[in-house]
Design a protein that fits this description.
The protein is 40% helix and 4% strand. By secondary structure, the protein is mainly alpha-helical. It has a 3-stranded antiparallel β-sheet with strand order 1-2-3.
Length: 309
Amino acid sequence: MGILVALGVGVLTWAYLTASNYYEHTWTTHDATFAIPFPLSAADASTLAPGADPAVEALARAVGRGKHLVETRYSCNSCHGRDLGGSTVISSPFIGVWAAPNLTTGPGSVTQGFTALDWDRAVRHGIRHSGKTSSMPVTEFRAMSDHELSDIVAYIRSLPPVDRQMPPVRLGPLFSFLLATDRDATLVTYTIDHQASHAAEPPPLAASKELGQHIAQVCTGCHGPRFSGGAIAGDPGMPVVANLTMHETGLKGWTEADFLRAMQQGRRKDGTEIKPQMPWRQLGQMGETELKAVWAFLQTLPPVEKGNH
């Protein structure tokens, strides 16, 4: 028994030290530079009333677009709280502590003094201001365009400052073991090309598969890169995730109307309620064109059996 206990302690110690070292890795990225806010296009500037200040109007429009992106497509409030002042996502002695940080300009904020490069590294690369690894689910935001990120930053900066200090990541034994034995599946920062550039603009607003694919990247964190769903390792509190492909175990037989009802009302084709872990209340606030674009994209996916991420 003593040997088994010693072995268990040794394994957990190794897992914790290995996982901690992964968080301490320092990264370099490409030099992302973009305006905050984006200036008005020539077409937009031509619509201004005589005497209107283009810079003021550009900021106002950016804040409006950023609010839409934060509250719908990217559901930032789901982790960072309704006021974006930070929120504890997981707190478990077995799993660990994960708290989404304060994004506002108030005391305790992690974004004070951030440049466009800092925002790019945090949101699209999963890298902290220190240059070390973060827990940001960057797979879901990697395809975000410069213009979208700029709009989001403009909106966040317009919010009332929140005085809130969130705790740092604390690794529990389960997460330490999962991270130590399968780093790439647990910290996606290790799996992406940090020198690759990003699109300046998102696809045009239309019910197209191109826009749908762009929006649906936020779904990959739970539904997987093939959108086939299944159990999420390391999070026993999460239900089995739905298959979004047109497989028999997924959305085969669904219509566009069924999909819109699921996203806007939280009810599946058979009328049952979608579990609250699915942020349909946020995603369902997207415009109908955006939702129809997602549906158009999902129909192009190869049918995959549920759970085969």
